[in-house]
Amino acid sequence: MSKGRREFLKQLSIGGGAIVLGSAISSGLKAQDTALKEKTIRATTMIPQGNHLLPPLPYAYDALEPVIDVETVTLHHDKHHAGYVRGLNHAENMMAKARAEGDFAMVKHWSKELAFHGSGHILHTIYWENLSPQGGGTPAGKLADAINAEFGNFDTLKAQLSAASKSVEGSGWGILAYQPIFQRLVILQSEIHQNLTQWGAMPLLVIDVWEHAYYLKYQNARAAYVDKLFDIINWQDVAARYEKLF
Q1: In terms of domains, do 226 and 148 share one?
Q2: How many domains, the chain?
Q3: Which of 6, 124, 184, 207 satisfies CB 3.0 to 4.6 Å to 174 for a cystine?
């Protein structure tokens, strides 16, 4: 709980506090319900070209404190992630226009835009769902078995994924993915969004190491941010993504 929220709750009267707190809980539940419905729609319905939406956070903006501060979450979600959604929609619309007119002179440009903004939207959507104020700990079930089979144990996975994330050159991501061609888990680095990835690999857990993900709180201490991020990783979400592949 953030310092601001604690002070706010201290200042509430008993009666008024119950009303406001009840309203806040109700709003939080509605937001979670909306996020769940939109997640279900994404999984079962084809999204028309140029109609991608910014998914709501599955928790309050300050829920990830003290690991990630409310200012960072707000800017990251409402500005950066939203920008990728807008860019993806625009690129899809322009590609549709090119097809309709039979004019592919700009196909190289719009293909790059689709890769950049599309990858940014996909990875950010996974990123928010990979995190939880009740996260941390270690994975269980089939995911734990797969981790032990590939990496020996969870500590080795964590060490490799942390090192991969911390050492991304420039901006990008550390990614735990399932590679169906190899039929095993892999750890990848992704520079920007679309470079150094493997075709067909399905991201399960992504660690955003673009500076906008951590700079307000951690400045240039990327390693400290990555280390703390493991305290809020939602392993249930990661495990669910893994199990859906089979």
Answers
A1: yes
A2: 3
A3: 207
The domain of 222 spans 141-243
| Residues 169 and 234 reside in one and the same domain | yes
- Of the two residues 115 and 40, the one the predictor is more confident about is 115
pLDDT tens, position by position, 232-244: 999 999 999 999 9
List, for residues 63-106, the tens digit of each pLDDT value.
999 999 999 999 999 999 999 999 999 999 999 999 999 999 99
Q: Which of 108, 130, 152 is the last residue of a domain?
A: 130
* 81 and 25 within one domain: no
Within a domain: 58: no
Question: Are residues 85 and 8 part of one domain?
Answer: no
Q: CATH no. for residue 100?
A: 1.10.287.990
H/E/C letters for each residue in the chain?
CCHHHHHHHHHCCHHHHHHHHHHHHHHHHHHHHHHHHHHHHHHHCCCCCCCCCCCCCCCCCCCCCCCCCHHHHHHHHHHHHHHHHHHHHHHHHHHHHHHHHCCCCCHHHHHHHHHHHHHHHHHHHHHHHHECCCCCCCCCHHHHHHHHHHHCCHHHHHHHHHHHHHCCCCCEEEEEEEECCCCEEEEEEEECCCECCCCCCEEEEEEECCHHHCHHHHCCCHHHHHHHHCCCECHHHHHHHHHCCC
- The Cα 196–Cα 182 span in angstroms is 17
Residue 90: Cβ-neighbour burial (10 angstroms; 0-12, 13-18, 19+)? middle
